[in-house]
Write a structure and sequence with these properties.
Layout: H1 3-16, H2 28-38, H3 41-61, H4 63-81, H5 86-101, H6 105-121, H7 125-138
Helix pairs in contact: 1-3, 3-4, 3-5, 4-5, 4-6, 4-7, 6-7
Organism: Mesocestoides corti (Flatworm)
Protein name: Non-specific serine/threonine protein kinase
InterPro entries: ARM-type_fold, Htt_N_HEAT_rpt-1, Huntingtin_fam
Length: 148
């Protein structure tokens, strides 16, 4: 599959989550929370899988262009980590784990930065604890000379 087809899959999930709108009357995070809470569990699980798979496929094809989508993908997944349903939380957490585990060398710094941003934002206790665990798991990917 081409980069464009994976990008289309990502945009489809973003539009389903209400992140792509012609006119946004409310805060994007608030819109995402409202959509996620009203979406059926099976649809959310499918969207999480599609989001993760499309992002990882895009990363393998063109890491430089994939960085543009990283903040949207990680933000969505961290928001889903605090979902009331346990299956959705586990799927979102696994999606974040896959992105961290398979992060290309060019993408590692950006992934760590997005996790740090999530720690600073810390909207929910579950997303904060997940971000802290992910950050501690990523710390070994940072060059020891740069860890000051």
């Amino acid at each position: 599959m081409s980069f464009g087809s994976h990008e289309g899959r990502l945009l489809e999930v973003f539009s389903h989550f209400g992140m792509i709108q012609k006119e946004s009357s409310s805060d994007p995070e608030e819109a995402l929370i409202n959509v996620v809470l009203t979406t059926p569990k099976q649809r959310l699980l499918k969207d999480i899988a599609q989001l993760t798979e499309a992002f990882l496929a895009m990363q393998s094809l063109s890491p430089a262009e994939t960085v543009n989508y990283l903040s949207f993908v990680t933000g969505s997944l961290f928001e889903l980590v605090s979902h009331p349903d346990q299956d959705v939380r586990m799927a979102a957490d696994e999606g974040i784990n896959q992105i961290i585990k398979l992060a290309d060398i060019q993408l590692v710094q950006h992934v760590i930065y997005e996790i740090f941003i999530e720690i600073k934002r810390s909207l929910h206790a579950r997303s904060l604890s997940s971000a802290l665990r992910k950050f501690s798991a990523c710390i070994n990917k940072i060059d020891p000379k740069k860890r000051r």
